[in-house]
Specification:
By secondary structure, the chain is of the alpha+beta class. It is built from 14 helices and 10 strands. The longest helix is centred in the N-terminal third of the chain and has 21 residues, at 102-122.
């Protein structure tokens, strides 16, 4: 489904001049037709946004499964479009930023994922409304190798769907139509019942939690067995398996299993999560594995995560493997700060306050 905003205006729309007006360098015109234009943000969007013209109004549409950053910037684009058209946003008016705030983003994703769960309980496919590729859809068999099922949490389902869209992994096919258009079906939407959760921090310092259901754990352990029997899996999924053993979610904590799966995840292409998790495991210790700053540093060096870059800076500042090197510590901390990591930004702020 899509969320739509109606703007009252009879002014002519020109895509190129609107892009200049909106002043978002990453916003691109993807295509257009008779009375509609499709836009996306380079490196961010996983679905399109559409401007459609009627007689004396315009409609701005966004897919409810759009990238999180696109949902957050939606009110800005709508406000810019309204000002560009010298028009008025119906019903909402100047309250657009209040109406389409963070709460709306969370509710929109939750409602759409719930609809996806309900649909996939009775139908083989769930189609996106404004995909970057025509007739893109998701199905349970496509979710399976990512350890996702109908009992997974909303963030887990949404996160892996975004991963699939970002990496062009969704299949495309002609929509399946039901002849009886009046057919209605009552569906009990599968619920997520967590048995454990894993805490993490975002680059900006906000805390988030990944929760796992019993079905998630059994699913991931089944994939682990299939992997050892020769099935290829994405690195991010192998990292999830390692996380189960690292945090003891649904299984006993097993440091050696965690190290194995994080290593496999890195070898399978996960340079973001797995080496960072491995670095944290060695830095803090886990089960029978004692803390080792040298091993932690070696793992962090393999990571593309700004957090790992901050830890590398810390290693030089504190001399984890030799004499402290303040110059290199500053270089790595400055890199992490440039990437937006809150710990590095605070660290540099404290240093600058001493000057």
């Amino acid at each position: 489904m899509t969320t739509s905003i109606i703007i009252k205006s009879a002014k002519e729309f020109d895509a190129d001049s609107f892009l200049l007006y909106a002043d978002l360098p990453e916003l691109l015109l993807l295509g257009y037709g008779d009375g509609f234009w499709l836009f996306a943000r380079r490196g961010i969007s996983t679905t399109c946004m559409m401007v459609a013209r009627n007689i004396d109004t315009y409609e701005l549409h966004i897919d409810n499964l759009a990238a999180y950053d696109d949902l957050r910037i939606f009110p800005y684009i709508a406000d810019s479009l309204a000002h560009y058209l010298d028009g008025e946003i119906s019903d909402i008016g100047n309250a657009i930023y209040d109406y389409f705030g963070e709460e709306w983003v969370e509710e929109t994703i939750s409602e759409e994922v719930a609809m996806m769960k309900g649909t996939l309980s009775v139908a083989p496919r769930y189609y996106l409304s404004l995909p970057l590729m025509n007739d893109a859809y998701i199905s349970l068999d496509k979710f399976y190798p990512f350890g996702v099922n109908l009992h997974s949490s909303t963030p887990r389902i949404y996160g892996y769907l975004q991963y699939m869209m970002r990496n062009n992994l969704l299949p495309c096919g002609e929509p399946i139509y039901i002849e009886d258009s009046d057919l209605t079906v009552e569906v009990d939407i599968p619920q997520h019942t967590p048995i454990g959760r894993v805490k993490s921090w975002q680059t900006d310092g906000s805390e988030t939690y990944e929760t796992y259901s019993r079905e998630d754990v059994e699913h991931l352990l089944a994939l682990a067995k299939e992997y050892k029997e020769g099935r290829a899996l994405h690195g991010v999924v192998l990292n999830d398996i390692g996380t189960l053993y690292h945090e003891g979610v649904g299984v006993a904590i097993d440091a050696h299993e965690a190290v194995y799966w994080f290593g496999e995840a890195y070898r399978a292409g996960d340079t973001l999560y797995a080496p960072t998790n491995l670095g944290d495991l060695y830095r803090k210790g886990c089960g029978c594995i004692e803390p080792s700053l040298a091993d932690a540093l070696a793992a962090y060096r393999k990571s593309t995560d700004p957090y790992a870059h901050y830890r590398i800076g810390q290693s030089y500042e504190e001399g984890w493997t030799g004499e402290p090197d303040i110059k290199k510590a500053f270089e790595w901390c400055n890199l992490a700060a440039g990437e937006g990591h809150h710990l590095a930004i605070k660290r540099l702020g404290r240093e600058n306050s001493k000057l």
